[in-house]
Design brief:
525 residues; alpha/beta; Immunoglobulin-like; TIM Barrel; 2 domains; eleven-stranded mixed β-sheet; eight-stranded parallel β-sheet; 25 strands
């Protein structure tokens, strides 16, 4: 049965009387109120609660920074490449003068007196995840060294190996066993299996209600030569090194916690997806693989076939909108008209095959062929080279914290993730102001933990340039329909007719919204 609701001037009114007591929860975002009736646009949203049903992973509502309603939390980023669990030291690399310090425990809310306690940063991170029922993803090191001390900046002359760094080995030698919960700080070694033992001792395996469920194989290895030159040096990582280390660490994880999920390679972007950021041995190693992502999946699958054990559960990639050819970048957090427009538009690169972004990526036919639209193409790489692998985007951001366009882009991205069957996603940056509003539409729309439904259903708009719509139901039941309706126009309000096709009849709608006047969600109806 088709039912219609019409929105105008930020309000919704029912076009026909419905008698059965069912309702729709509508969350709205508006940039502008209407100024002139003749300037008003119109659009039609079509929703069918029986078609295109697919479960929405709760882990797509994830973050890297704290957010109390996140479905997943990631302990990752540049600092985790060289985080030393034995004393919580880490090095900032190029991000901040190559300084070694207490940043990671500080960031995770560890009390000052525990900054030097083994594993404290990971413990506090995971305990917060447990408190809010979130999945924890913890990054493990692959680059060979971690920070040894917290004594400030590391000079070029102190690059690894030196007494400012501790070397990393995956396995503690047999003659040095057993594992220690208080590791030896004088041996100048960090053993990853000893760290895993520490976490398993405190929290149990990933199969328990308190265990850490996922581990990432480091972070953005294609950029180590740039972000971590004091640790790694100035030569890009090779394919051979990264694959050997990735397989070795994944094998260790699966030995110690067989059901833990392994994420990799946590690549930063297109050039790393394409050839591991111009890896020196790419031409020698690539064989018949079109891209590094294909090679990575294929090599992991080969090892799976050889050993009978899956070593990669989630293809982990990062996705940041790039500056366009007019010099506009959403990532600079600007709020001028053109930046706002591009910010809201570029979410289409996640899913829309009719949209080609005006960037160095969109202008390269090979990159478009391989990587745009991004999520469908990544699923295609998986299907071709390692079927059954899940897809995660563990860093992304459209920014715009100070403008409603940021909330719109964030809400649109989350809706797209659900429609496109993404398994995991983690926003990079502070979840505040309008970005928080975008999350709240799905995770806390009523201020009481009200959530978007768990099953995506068909939803589309006849104006993808000015609007977006995402819809869901609760499990298999369509007694409640959730609709996220987004107005991307900066020039006028939009009158929208929502057509809901369902075997049920809907009597009323609850409406929550934010607009450019305030990031606070409020109930309109």
């Amino acid at each position: 049965m088709a039912q219609q609701y019409t929105e105008t001037k930020s309000k919704w009114r029912e076009k026909k009387m419905i008698t059965v007591h069912r309702y729709i929860i509508v969350t709205l975002v508006f940039l502008l109120t209407i100024f002139f009736a003749d300037a008003q646009k119109k659009a039609v949203f079509n929703i069918n609660t029986a078609q295109q049903r697919k479960p929405i992973s709760p882990f797509i509502y994830g973050t890297n920074d704290p957010y109390g309603f996140a479905g997943s939390k990631r302990l990752g980023g540049n600092r985790l490449t060289n985080y030393n669990w034995e004393n919580n030291a880490s090095n900032a690399g190029r991000d901040w003068y190559h300084e070694s310090d207490n940043y990671v425990p500080w960031q995770q809310g560890v009390p000052d007196q525990e900054y030097d306690s083994a594993g404290a940063a990971i413990k506090y991170f995971h305990q917060r995840s447990l408190q809010q029922g979130a999945y924890s993803l913890v990054t493990l090191p692959l680059a060979g060294y971690v920070a040894r001390d917290k004594n400030g900046a590391i000079a070029e002359s102190q690059s690894a190996p030196s007494n400012r760094w501790t070397s990393v080995e995956f396995r503690k030698p047999q003659e040095l066993l057993p594992f220690r919960l208080r590791p030896d700080l004088t041996d100048n070694k960090l053993y990853v299996d000893e760290l895993l033992n520490y976490l398993l001792h405190h929290f149990g395996t990933s199969s328990t209600s308190t265990g850490i469920r996922g581990y990432s194989l480091d972070n953005e290895p294609g950029l180590w030569f740039d972000t971590h030159s004091r640790l790694w040096g100035h030569t890009p990582v090779t394919v051979k090194y990264l694959m050997e280390k990735s397989i070795g660490l994944s094998t260790l994880i699966k030995e110690m916690d067989p059901n833990a999920e392994v994420f990799g390679p946590a690549s930063w972007g297109i050039t790393e997806f394409e050839n591991l950021q111009f890896a020196p041995d790419w031409d020698q190693e690539k064989g018949n693989y079109p891209t590094f992502i294909d090679l990575y999946l294929g090599r992991m699958r080969e090892k799976h076939v050889e050993t009978g054990k899956r070593l990669l559960d989630v293809l982990d990639v990062h996705w940041y909108p790039q500056g366009n050819n007019n010099g506009i970048s959403p990532f600079n957090n600007g709020t001028d008209y053109e930046t706002n427009r591009v910010r809201m538009e570029m979410t289409r690169s996640l899913w829309d095959s009719t949209y080609i972004e005006n960037t160095w990526i969109g202008n390269d036919p090979f990159k478009v062929q391989q990587f745009l639209p991004f999520i469908p193409k990544m699923h295609k790489h998986i299907d071709n080279y390692y079927p059954g692998t899940k897809l995660g985007i563990t860093e992304y951001a459209y920014m715009g914290t100070g403008h409603a366009s940021g909330g719109i882009a964030q809400a649109d991205a989350l809706g797209i993730f659900g429609k496109q069957g993404l398994y995991f996603a983690n926003y990079w940056g502070a979840v505040v102001d309008f970005v928080k509003s975008g999350f709240d539409l799905y995770r806390n729309y009523d201020g009481k933990g009200g959530k978007f439904g768990s099953t995506s259903v068909l939803s589309n708009t006849n104006d993808i340039n000015a609007t977006s719509v995402h819809a869901s139901i609760e499990g298999e039941s369509d007694s409640i329909v959730h609709v996220v309706a987004l107005n991307k126009s900066q020039d006028s309000a939009i009158t929208v007719t929502i057509q809901v096709n369902s075997s049920r009849q809907y009597r009323s709608a609850k409406v929550y919204a934010f607009d450019n006047g305030s990031p606070v969600l409020r109930q309109l109806k």
